[in-house]
């Protein structure tokens, strides 16, 4: 462990793991371990998966799948937001162009 890291002990399926992390990442690490522990317990309770390694892999696959779905949703929302911003910019540009035309007409009168 380097000087910048702190040791954090997390408990997953009744087994302790000591992990080094930055002090500002400590809460996130603990929360991640809690989530993994919960998912692994849920996977184990189904009774369809036997063995800690397989339980860990299934929990990791489920978490990864959820993460990918969230990323895809986010990308969709970002694309939609980008389209809406572009449409607003076009409307603003049109309004400014109309205002310039009106100003030019008023000046010529």
Measured by DSSP, the beta-strand proportion falls in: 5-15%
Overall shape: it is elongated
What is the CATH homology-level superfamily?
Cell division protein ZapA protomer, N-terminal domain
How would a crystallographer describe the biggest sheet? Answer: 2 strands, antiparallel
Q: How far is the N terminus from the C terminus? A: 78 Å
Low-confidence spans: pLDDT under 50, at least 5 residues? Answer: none
Biggest sheet: strand arrangement? 1-2
Question: If helices are DSSP runs of H or I spanning 4 or more residues, what is the number of helices?
Answer: 2
Mean pLDDT: 93
Question: How much helical structure, as a percent, in the residues?
Answer: over 70%
| DSSP E strands, number | 2
Q: Which structural class is indicated by helix and strand composition?
A: alpha+beta
SSE topology string: EEHH
**Domain tally:** 1
Identify the CATH class: Alpha Beta
In short:
The chain has 109 residues and is of the alpha+beta class. Helix content is 71%, strand content 13%.
Task: Write a structural description.
The chain is of the alpha+beta class. It has one domain (6-108): Cell division protein ZapA protomer, N-terminal domain (Double Stranded RNA Binding Domain), CATH 3.30.160.880. The protein has two helices and two strands, in the order E-E-H-H. A two-stranded antiparallel sheet has the order 1-2. The relative contact order is 0.07. The model has no long low-confidence stretch (mean pLDDT 93).
Topology readout:
Blueprint: E1 6-12, E2 15-21, H1 26-45, H2 52-108
Antiparallel strand pairs: 1-2
Helix pairs in contact: 1-2
């Amino acid at each position: 462990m380097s000087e910048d890291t702190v040791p954090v002990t997390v408990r997953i399926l009744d087994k302790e793991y000591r992990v080094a992390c930055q002090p500002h990442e400590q809460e996130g690490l603990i929360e991640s371990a809690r989530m993994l522990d919960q998912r692994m317990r849920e996977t184990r309770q189904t009774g369809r998966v036997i063995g800690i390694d397989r339980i860990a892999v299934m929990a990791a696959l489920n978490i990864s799948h959820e993460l990918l779905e969230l990323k895809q949703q986010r990308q969709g929302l970002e694309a939609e937001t980008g389209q809406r911003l572009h449409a607003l910019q076009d409307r603003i540009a049109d309004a400014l162009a109309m205002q310039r035309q009106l100003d030019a007409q008023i000046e010529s009168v």
